[in-house]
Amino acid sequence: MQLTFRDAVLKGLAEDGGLLMPEKIPVLEKRLLQHFPAMTFQEIAMAMLTPYLEDDFSVSEIRDIVVEAFDFQCSLVQLTERVWSLELFHGPTLAFKDFGVRFMARVLQRFAAGAQKEITVLTATSGDTGSAVARGFYGVAGVRVVILFPLGKVSIMQEKQMTTLGGNICAVGVQGSFDDCQRMVKEAFSDKNITLCLNLTSANSINIARWLPQACYYAYAWSRLYHAGKVVFSVPSGNFGNISAGVLAKKMGVPVGSFIAATNANDVVPVYIRSGVYSPRPSVSTISSAMDVGNPSNFQRLLALYGYSWEKLTSEITGYSFSDEETRKAISKLYLKYGYLADPHGAVGWLGLQNYQHNHPDCAGVFLTTAHAAKFPETVEPLIGKKISIPENLTSLMNKKNHYITCNAKHEELKQILLNG
Ligand SMILES: *Cc1c(COP(=O)(O)O)cnc(C)c1O
Q1: Which ligand 1 atom lies nearest to the CA of residue 346?
Q2: pTM exceeds 0.85, yes or no
Q3: What is the pLDDT of residues 98-125, one digit of tens each?
């Protein structure tokens, strides 16, 4: 079935529960791409996103969305002659999810303005997504956000980020696990009494409005490095939304080389790349916890981009997985040898690039750094033998008061909150 961008964003999923994809991937004109090196990040983002948005928004609306969403830096830091870090953690919650969430919030705000009913965004989180969603949607008119988190199972900082804002952000501490939270979200979406009453959508990483904007920073990085030949991108991966947005950028005509899927011990995709067999399994806990995913929700999107062909996929994507021990060593080495402060996720990305360049020594490469090291002080500080200074916007949070509702892991209780809250 064909949907407009607006319907795709508001529905989140296809009728059959599958992921939504652009029907046809727009290819940018070579002449436009040639201008990228002289364009700002925001200008490049406009060029990349306009083909998807132009049926729903005017040029000036698209410009406003992009300028408001991407009001922070995306920077490329050179470590060696052939290695760069693409730092994606300079947004308000210090993780790359700010790109997708902030863009989606600005898009929904405009859809809400034209809607009869307030839009309710319901999302489950194990910590990071909830923080980004709370910050990204805070104060967005016409949108109410309900975030379910497992009580006592998120970090103090993450809890502060979700529960101190108030306003249109309603945090719900669930007496249960993250899996309970996810199940409750699914149950809410399949309850007709709720979906008929509320304009309900989700802000998880499979929503197309969170996925598309991630293609922009691949184009940006290429535009700054086009002189280095066809660069490879090493992407620390969990749900595989980020790397599949890189593949989307390539399909849109951005001349990047290939991709490296770098994972922690949760290695179902590297195993698939090696063997052709995809066998999801329960996740295991690691120090790069945002990538502890046993059945990546965006894997189908990645397959679709390669026409469901293992041969095609493996001709452009290499996969590696790394242990916590290797990740710790990488954090130390990056700091000692290059004076570079990496978080556990970025370190996995760097390891992927190192492995690849071992076999392709002439190849220039970029590893994506997806979170600020200050978010993982208990792991990083002992490795570098130093305290990490925490950016001020996070320290000031620690003195603010938490506000949240608690509820049992029961559908009926959440239903009450959704319908009466
Ligand atoms: C979410 C997240 C990832 C994984 O990204 P995917 O798009 O799910 O592959 C990696 N690093 C950090 C810090 C994250 O928050």
Answers
A1: 11
A2: yes
A3: 999 999 999 999 999 888 889 999 999 9
User: What pLDDT does residue 399 have?
Assistant: 87
Q: How far is the CA of 135 from the centre of ligand 1 (A)?
A: 17
3-state SS of the chain is CCCCHHHHHHHCCCCCCCCCCCCCCCCCCHHHHHHHHHCCHHHHHHHHHHHHHCCCCCHHHHHHHHHHHCCCCCEEEEEECCEEEEECCCCCCCECHHHHHHHHHHHHHHHHHCCCCCEEEEEECCCHHHHHHHHHHCCCCCEEEEEEEECCCCCHHHHHHHHCCCCCEEEEEEECCHHHHHHHHHHHHCCHHHHHHCEEECCCCCCHHHHHHHHHHHHHHHHHHHHHCCCEEEEECCCCHHHHHHHHHHHCCCCCCCEEEEECCCCHHHHHHHHCCCCCCCCCCCCCHHHCCCCCCCHHHHHHHCCCCHHHHHHHEEEEECCHHHHHHHHHHHHHHHCCCCCHHHHHHHHHHHHHHHHCCCCCEEEEECECHHHCHHHHHHHHCCCCCCCHHHHHHHHCCCCCEEEECCHHHHHHHHHHC
Atom of ligand 1 nearest to the CA of 238: 9
**48 CA to centre of ligand 1 in angstroms:** 21
Counting ligand 1 atoms within 8 A of each CB, the residue from 158, 235, 345, 367 with the most, and so the one to mutate, is 345
Q: Is the pLDDT of residue 11 over 90?
A: no
Please check the confidence at residue 17 and state whether its pLDDT lies above 80: no
Residue nearest to atom 1 of ligand 1 (CA): 290
Rounded to an integer, the average pLDDT of 176-200 is 90
Ligand 1 centre distance from Cα of residue 159 (Å): 19
Within 6 A (CB) of ligand 1 lie 95, 97, 128, 205, 236-242, 290-291, 345, 370-371
**What is the per-residue pLDDT across 362-392, written as a single tens digit (0 to 9) for each?**
999 999 999 999 989 999 999 999 999 888 8
Atom of ligand 1 nearest to the CA of 89: 13
